[in-house]
């Protein structure tokens, strides 16, 4: 009697789990009554053989049916080395990027426009005060924190990371390193809260890599006013920035000086650079300065010529290395997911050895880049990072990122060149990472000089 109750219970459980829609579909293809009759007349051995056969068929079609491991670009669990505060910031930025940026990234990339409303959303995260204090000094783990933030941003969208890097890196560092105490007091709190947005104008149309030796933009003092003349090219955020840091050579002393230029200054003009194939969401400006008048109060006079600019670039170069990390991480994660979804020859493409090899190569790159940059950030926070350390990280990450996004594009087949699959954006954006904050050739030369004692620069 008890056995019968058990059987009845099992039958009821079975009946609850039956998908009636699928059963109806099946009944159109086979005679269900006949099938049930056949199965119930089978002995246990034949039933077991049949179940085994069906499992094998399912495995061949859908993978092995087991729960698949999570897709993560943090294979060596870097996160476990982060402090509670660093983890909290990582979660905040990841959530912001996935909620606010991922859904619009391709649309704005296509529109060639920066979504200004993101600034209001980003302000709510209070990220920059975790990196800089209000007086411009850095928090004890500023570089690691900045690295985590940059990696998380670039993992979804490199343009957003670049917007952040130009304002919170280049422009902010310029104010910290070259601004007077009064200027810092006025501007830093507003910059840290994203109430004003900064840009950084160093590169010129005719002089890029050689800017330390050939800057053409000039400044001359006339009473309490400085008069600036020249052009600056590629200036990120310049089309909407509230303040643009402009570097110019003193006509009298040949010294490099810094200025805080406001868009309303007479003689200042900016055109948006159109038709880029990378970082299209970042608005890069071509700035023209025609007898542009800047008051002495906006002259960043607490600096020491070119060596201050070089120091700013040394600090921010490490941040660009982290962009490569995030970009490669995003490209890998998209690929690992795609390899599970996309089926060819009746199997997910991730089941093919050549595809697995690509994924492993990509993950190896990502992991090597992460561990290198984390160590670099620790050195930066400890004050032991030298030029060649930052340059090596920039060279290595930009090159490995390029390899990784190319594999990601390839793994997506034709879909890899469609924006909607995201890796096409990563593929294009990497080209900017490769060229800015010192091209890979120039950064190689910096490392080459350090390890051979011979300078290959002209
Ligand atoms: C998307 C983007 C955003 C940018 N944002 C900013 C910004 O906000 N502010 C700013 O000031 N600048 C910005 N830049 C400019 C960037 O820093 C420069 O593009 C970069 O320094 C290279 O200069 P260039 O493009 O003039 O190339 P060039 O200096 O003309 O170099 C051309 C090629 O020659 C190589 N080369 C040059 N000299 C040597 C040498 N001695 N040995 C071997 N090879 C050499 C270079 O590596 C490169 O391959 C941005 C650039 C891009 C693409």
Structural overview:
α8 (142-156) packs antiparallel against α13, α14 (387-411) runs antiparallel to α15 and α14 (387-411) crosses α16. The protein folds into three domains: 78-197, Butyryl-Coa Dehydrogenase, subunit A, domain 1 (Orthogonal Bundle); 199-300, Butyryl-CoA Dehydrogenase, subunit A, domain 2, CATH 2.40.110.10; 309-452, Butyryl-CoA Dehydrogenase, subunit A, domain 3, CATH 1.20.140. It is of the alpha+beta class and 458 residues long. It has helices spanning 2-17, 20-29, 32-40, 44-62, 84-101, 105-111, 117-123, 142-156, 158-178, 181-192, 211-214, 306-341, 353-382, 387-411, 423-435, 440-452, and strands at residues 198-201, 218-222, 225-236, 243-250, 256-261, 268-272, 284-295, 299-300, 343-344, 347-348. Flavin-adenine dinucleotide (FAD) binds next to β1, β3, α15 and α16.
Observed structural traits:
Butyryl-CoA Dehydrogenase, subunit A, domain 2, 13% strand, Butyryl-Coa Dehydrogenase, subunit A, domain 1, two-stranded antiparallel sheet, Butyryl-CoA Dehydrogenase, subunit A, domain 3, elongated, single chain, 16 helices, 56% helix, binds flavin-adenine dinucleotide, alpha+beta
What layout of secondary structure does this protein have?
Blueprint: H1 2-17, H2 20-29, H3 32-40, H4 44-62, H5 84-101, H6 105-111, H7 117-123, H8 142-156, H9 158-178, H10 181-192, E1 198-201, H11 211-214, E2 218-222, E3 225-236, E4 243-250, E5 256-261, E6 268-272, E7 284-295, E8 299-300, H12 306-341, E9 343-344, E10 347-348, H13 353-382, H14 387-411, H15 423-435, H16 440-452
Parallel strand pairs: 1-4, 2-4
Antiparallel strand pairs: 2-3, 3-7, 4-5, 5-8, 6-7, 9-10
The structure holds flavin-adenine dinucleotide.
């Amino acid at each position: 009697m008890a056995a019968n109750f058990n059987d009845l219970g099992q039958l009821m459980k079975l009946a609850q789990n039956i998908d009636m829609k699928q059963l109806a579909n099946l009944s159109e293809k086979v005679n269900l009554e006949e099938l049930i009759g056949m199965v119930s007349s089978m002995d246990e051995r034949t039933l077991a053989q049949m179940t085994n056969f069906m499992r094998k068929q399912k495995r061949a079609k859908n993978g092995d049916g087991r729960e698949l491991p999570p897709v993560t670009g943090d294979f060596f669990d870097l996160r476990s080395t982060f402090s509670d505060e660093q983890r909290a910031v990582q979660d905040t930025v990841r959530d912001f990027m996935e909620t606010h940026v991922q859904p619009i990234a391709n649309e704005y990339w296509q529109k060639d426009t920066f979504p200004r409303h993101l600034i209001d959303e980003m302000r709510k995260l209070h990220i920059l005060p975790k990196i800089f204090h209000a007086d411009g000094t850095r928090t004890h783990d500023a570089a690691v924190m900045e690295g985590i933030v940059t990696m998380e941003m670039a993992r979804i969208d490199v343009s957003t990371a670049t917007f952040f890097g130009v304002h919170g890196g280049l422009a902010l560092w310029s104010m910290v390193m070259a601004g007077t105490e009064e200027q810092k007091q006025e501007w830093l709190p507003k910059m840290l809260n994203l109430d004003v947005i900064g840009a950084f104008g160093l590169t010129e149309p005719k002089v890029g890599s050689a800017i330390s030796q050939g800057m053409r933009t000039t400044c001359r003092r006339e009473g309490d006013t400085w008069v600036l003349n020249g052009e600056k090219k590629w200036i990120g955020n310049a089309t909407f920035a509230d303040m643009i840091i402009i570097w110019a050579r003193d006509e009298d002393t040949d010294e490099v000086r810094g200025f805080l230029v406001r868009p309303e200054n007479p003689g200042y003009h900016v055109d948006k650079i159109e038709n880029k194939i990378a970082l299209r969401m970042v608005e890069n400006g071509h700035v023209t300065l025609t007898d542009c008048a800047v008051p002495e109060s906006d002259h960043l006079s607490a600096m020491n010529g070119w060596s201050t600019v070089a120091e700013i670039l040394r600090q921010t170069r490490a941040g660009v290395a982290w962009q490569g990390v995030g970009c490669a991480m995003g490209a890998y994660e998209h690929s690992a997911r795609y390899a599970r979804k996309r089926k060819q020859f009746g199997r997910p493409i991730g089941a093919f050895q050549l595809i697995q090899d690509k994924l492993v190569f990509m993950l190896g790159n990502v992991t090597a880049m992460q561990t290198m940059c984390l160590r670099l950030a620790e050195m930066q926070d400890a004050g032991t990072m030298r030029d060649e350390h930052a340059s090596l990280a920039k060279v290595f990450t930009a090159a490995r990122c390029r390899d990784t996004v190319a594999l990601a594009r390839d793994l997506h087949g034709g879909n890899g060149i469609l924006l909607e699959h995201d890796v096409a954006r990563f593929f294009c954006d990497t080209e900017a990472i490769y060229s800015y904050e010192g091209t890979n050739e120039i950064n190689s030369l910096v490392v080459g000089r350090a390890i051979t004692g011979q300078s290959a620069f002209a």
